[in-house]
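Spend some time on this chain, C-alpha cells included, and walk me through the fold:

. . .
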Amino acid sequence: MLFSELIATGSGIPNRIVPNDFFNYLVEDADNWILSRTGIRERRFVGEQQSTSDIATEAALNALAAGNIDPAELDCIIVATSTPDMILPSTACMVQKNIGAVNAFAFDMNSVCSSLVYALDTADSFIKAGKCRTALVIGADTYSKILNFDDKGSCPLFGDGAGAVILRATEQRTGLLQTMIKSDGRGWDLIQVPSSGSRKPVTAETIAARENTFFMEGKKVFVFATDVIPKIIEEVTASAGITPADLDFIIPHQANLRIIDHITKKTGIGREKFLLNLDRFGNTAAASVGLVMDENRRNGTIKPGNLVLVMGFGGGLSWGGLLIRF
C-alpha cells in the first residue's frame, strides 16, 4: 500500500507588515479592539503589483529548495485558493511555468479556507491511485485584494500568504495516515463574494454596492466552526484507531483565537497542543495551516515522528482534517 510522505514545506510571506493600528480609521484604539476579539496583532499584505501566483511561486521554490527537489520531478501541482490571479486560466499553470515544472499537470482547487486540506487529500488520492509520485500542493490567498475595507467585522481579520507542501509516494506507513473532507452547501451564503462570477457578473453597479468584495456572517460562522472542529478531531482520530491524547500537536485553521479557546474548553485538549501564528499573520485563508506547518518544522517544534492533526474549515460550507506522521 502506498502512503503520501511529507518531504518538504515552504512559505511565501509578503514583506508588508500591517499592524492593527492601520485600522484606526474604523474604530478607536483598533489595536486593543482587534486583539481582544481575535488574538491578531498584525498581518501581511502583498504589494499592489503582486498576485496570488507570486507568493505561491515563492512558497513553491522554498519548498523545493528545502527538500532539494528538482522541479522536473513534480508530477502534479495543485494551487488551493479562493483568490486566483484571474478566473481563467488556473493559477497553478502560472506557478508551473514560474518554477519550471515541465512534467507536472496543474490545476486549482477552491474550498475557501479549507482549500489546502482538500487539495492535500486530493493529492494523497492521486498518489495512492498511482496517478503521480511527487505532488506539490500550495495554499495561497491574497484576501487584501477582495476585502471591503469599510467593514470592520471582516477586513481586520485577514492577511495574505502562501504555504507549500510536497508529498511523495512511499511504502512506509508515514505521512498522511488518515484524511476526511466534508461539505454542507446549505450554508453557502454565509461566506461569499456576491458579484464575482456568472450568478452576478461584475458591473459598475455591483462595484458601487461593494458586492465584488468579501462578505461573511461572522456570528453564524463562529457557531459553525466551534461545532465542527470537535467533530473533526473525534472523527479523524477514531478512524485512525487513536485518541486525541495520542496527538503531539493540532494545527487548526487560523481564524480567530476565540474559536481556539472555545475548542480547548469544549474538548479538554490543552492549549499547548494547538500550534498558532494568527497573532502575526491573521487569517490567511487557504495558506494558514501550510504556513504553520512550515514554520514549526523549520523551528524544530514539529519533529520527525510527531503525530499532528491538521484541520481546515470555511466557506461552502466546507471542513476537513488530515492526520500526518512527520
Summary: The domain at 3-173 is CATH 3.40.47.10 (Peroxisomal Thiolase; Chain A, domain 1). The longest strand covers residues 160-170.
